[in-house]
Amino acid sequence: MLSDKEKSPRDKIQSCDEMRRAIPTSTISNGVITRRYSLHDGESVCVAYHTPSQSVVFLEGDSAEVWWRIYAAKGDCESAFDYIRQHGTFKDREAEPRVVLTEFLDALEDSHLIGQKVRDFRRDLSVVEAMSVKQGADPTQNPELEIGQFMADHHIPYSLVLELTYRCNERCVHCYLPSDTRLPELSTSQVDSLLGEFSSMGGLLLQLTGGELLLRKDIVEILNISKAHGFVTSITSNLTLLNDQTLKAMVELQPRSVGCSIYAATAELHDAVTTFKGSFDKSIQSIQLLRAAGIPVIIKSPLLRSTAPHWRDIERLAQDLDCEYQFDLSITAKNDGGLSPLSNRVEDMGVLKDIFASSYYKLYSRDEALFTLTSPSPDAGLCGAGASGLCITPDGTVRPCIGLNLSLGRWPQNDLSEIWRSSPFFSEFGAIRLRDIPECRECPDSPYCSRCPGAWHAEHGDFRKPTTYACKLAHVWAKTQRGEHVSRKGDEDNETDN
Amino acid sequence: MKLTIKVSRYALNTACGCPKGAVGSCGVNYRAG
Fold first, then answer.
1. What residues in A contact B5, CB-CB < 8 Å?
2. Is the ipTM of this complex over 0.90?
3. How many angstroms separate the CA of residue B6 from the nearest CA in chain A?
């Protein structure tokens, strides 16, 4: 006979007549992070994450209300059952609400939000499959996109990128941070207060980054603070300074992911980018420790002139390490306008075509439907900077995005909520449309454009003017995906490619 | 009453592919059209 812990919610109410009259019970899974958002019309939605299984759940209307009641009651379903009985139309007001509740609990259990099954997600093949990244750009296929759109539509500060320090032990040749990293840094207690304010405003996604955040002596405390506030936390680090204490804190935090920049599959190539001998071996060793502990790791690979020809080796390395990976070709100018990183851009057309023809660029964030994508509407917004998130620099400067170096104010001198409510940036920037950008207005390559006004702003001080390089990347990607010829110059199609 | 949920296994990549890791703040894809 199954113990109570082993029974599914359905078993629990169908095992005997007496149990059928009972209200089902549930247990909130370890690692669930959730928020409820109440709207002006009285409706509410909930977002719930279970990071160990990489599950994200979006609940609206009655589903949100019922889930929240279950969560708030720590798994007790009595209040949820009452709600269903009061708000549903039933002929049998005892049995039918139980069926509704039971089916809902089954769905929650399938989503890992409730249940007591001990799972080893490292060996869960469905998770491995998810890590191959085949989600499309269609919001109906990807709740995270739909959630992001919802937060933007309701101007909810949903995500925060917190740059904890600009200090770094690496000196990457393409780094966008200014060379002078001696910036005042928020104290531990200030970080705690800031995150508390962000949480109270509805914040859920938190990205901790640097510089190199493991250089902060209080990083373990900050990771614990992030956990205490209940954020879905992502961490970006080169991991060369990972030690037992920080590893333990990361394991307890159960982060959404740890991102680590790996520029090549060999120490020689990688260390030449970081200009830090031994960095490759240290980063790889730490990645292995994190993966062994079940923490999702994503290898972030900005592709540079020196490393891009070897992109397949990075792909293989990521697979060997059981990590996701992310390529990026859009090397940007420094935040202070310095142009030194730009010499590292990949200009070789043969290499670019090869990369854009890869499965990564076919599948990543866009599926086969890519070929049928049309240009965005001229009425589309420029980008989502500030739409549902903010960035805060080490000294408390508030920005609309990590990539857009514009100050909206300074925390703690200015309340975060006050900036969010009253900064003119949001309405002014949000009003810019693609039709306002001559280069973008009728560009056939728009669906393939990363369109980062922050990168444009960094390069020539104008976030309304695309960079030549951004246009080139979009053009080559578009041509490659459409199966059209791209010349070595990347411009006209009827040139010979010799 | 039918209670439905939308669930997915999320990818670790950011939706827009931002190398700086700005999860969800750019949203080029979902605002593209």
1. 57-59, 63, 67, 104, 107-108, 111
2. no
3. 5
